[in-house]
Amino acid sequence: MAAETVAQGPLQVLPEKVEHLLQTLDPTSIFPSQAYNEHGHLQRILSIGQWTISVNTVYFILTSILVLVLVLVMAKKIKLVPKGRGVNAFEFLVEFVRNNVGGIIKHDRKKYEPFLLTCFVFILISNLIGLIPGAKPGTGIIAGTFALAIVVLVYFNAVGMKAKGAGKYWLGLVPHGVPGWIAPIIWLIEFISMLLRPITLALRLFANMYAGHIILGIFALLTGLFAQATFQGLGLYIAASPAWLILLIGLYLLELVVAFVQAYVFSLLTAVYIDSATAAH
Amino acid sequence: MKRKICAGLIGLGVLLTPALAFAEEAAEMAEEAAEGSTGLLASPIFPTLTEFIPMLIAFIVVAVVLIKVAWPMVIKALDERADKIENSLKSAEQAKVEAEEVLSEAQDQLAGARQEAGQIVESGRQAGETTQAEIIAKAEAESAAIVERGRQTIAAEKKAALTEVKTKAADLAVGIASKILGEKLSPEVDARLIDAAITEMGGFND
Question: ipTM more than 0.85?
Answer without folding.
Answer: no
